[in-house]
UniProtKB/TrEMBL annotation:
Keywords: Signal. InterPro entries: Phytase-like_dom. Residues 38-186 form the Phytase-like domain. This is Esterase-like activity of phytase family protein. The keyword Hydrolase does not apply. SUPFAM superfamilies: NHL repeat (SSF101898). Residues 1-17 form the signal peptide. The keyword Transmembrane does not apply.
Length: 327
């Protein structure tokens, strides 16, 4: 009987650990962003000497963020994307996405941003389940992703729902390893490796897939919401995921995507002054460095309780002991 109890304890321990109160990240600064006309901030990355952003409502520009201690200005860098590759997404999803893009803007629906060491920027298109590479000089080009990537993701029950497809991208400094985050119902991570000019999946494209729901923070009523990813970042050979509904950042194992530790930002993001009308999270963009985390909110056309209507980027300090600390 004691052996059975011990076995059950080992199985349940990871679940119990995730239900415990998480360490809250400390807010260092808050920066409303001027100059993003469409108002939607969907990706962040530190490239070279600056923080860059992308909007999912604009298919032809990136934004360099510049400013001081308070408000920042978004300076547009324009590009022309070539015609996107054909996609293995089913016809119904493609048509719904096309109509949505025509109505609200952003036919390519860029949802994530990452950079390599030589200055290439990588944008993930949710609408096309594809990745656009923008070099520091020269023309943008779409990566030659594996034909079976979408099929494998859908076989693991990801990429089945409209507006719940690929939401994040991460690249290593050498530009040879790529990770993509599937948003929700089910959420998951895909891992790819570069060989020559094309990309392959070494032992299958799906690193992890996970369904289910969990309670929203108490400030939002604690109702069950689908588990989700809204961004993924590679830092010090660990993957960090932004989990919008739960208002947390989680460190994950590079080999299987298993969660190792999580930190909450709900206490600062959900103060009375910073609350938005929707009963769900709006944090869409993430960048991790040694000193802390940049988190960007995609408020759409929603106005905060304090009257702020612009997208906002928060700077959180790294947790005590650093991002690599064990439990």
């Amino acid at each position: 009987m004691r052996q059975l109890a011990a076995a059950l304890l080992l199985v349940a321990a990871p679940v119990w650990a995730q239900t415990q109160a998480l360490e809250e990240l400390a807010l260092v600064s808050e920066h409303p962003i001027n100059g993003i006309a469409a108002g939607n901030l969907s990706g962040l990355a530190w490239c070279g000497e600056a923080l860059w952003a992308v909007s999912d409502r604009e298919d032809d520009r990136l934004y360099r963020l510049a400013g001081g201690d308070a408000d920042w200005q978004a300076e547009a860098e324009r590009f022309v994307a070539p015609p996107p590759p054909s996609t293995a997404l089913p016809w119904g999803l493609r048509m719904r996405t096309l109509v949505a893009g025509l109505l609200r803007g952003g036919n390519l629906d860029f949802e994530g941003l990452s950079c390599d060491a030589v200055g290439n920027r990588y944008l993930v298109s949710e609408a096309r389940a594809a990745v656009l590479q923008i070099p520091p000089a020269g023309s943008p080009q779409w990566l030659a992703l594996p034909e079976g990537m979408v099929r494998q993701a859908r076989a693991s029950s990801m990429l089945w729902h409209f507006n719940a497809l690929l939401e994040g991208v991460a690249i290593d400094s050498a530009g040879e390893r790529l990770w993509l985050a599937a948003e929700r119902q089910r959420r998951g991570l895909l891992a790819l490796h570069k060989r020559g000019s094309s990309w392959h999946c070494s032992a299958g494209c799906v690193l992890m897939s996970e369904g289910g729901s969990e309670p929203a923070p108490a400030q939002l009523g604690g109702e069950l919401q689908p588990r989700d990813f809204s961004a993924v970042v590679l830092h010090k050979e660990k993957l960090f995921t932004l989990e919008r509904q739960a208002h947390r950042i989680c460190r994950r194992n590079l080999n299987d995507g298993a969660v190792e530790r999580c930190w909450s930002f709900a206490a600062e993001a959900l103060t009375d002054a910073r609350r938005y009308p929707p009963p769900y999270g709006l944090a869409e963009a993430l960048w991790i460095d040694e000193q802390g985390a940049w988190v960007g909110s995609d408020n759409g056309r929603h106005t905060r309780a304090d009257g702020e209507q612009r997208p906002v980027v928060w700077r959180f300090a790294a947790p005590k002991g650093g991002w690599g600390r064990r439990r």
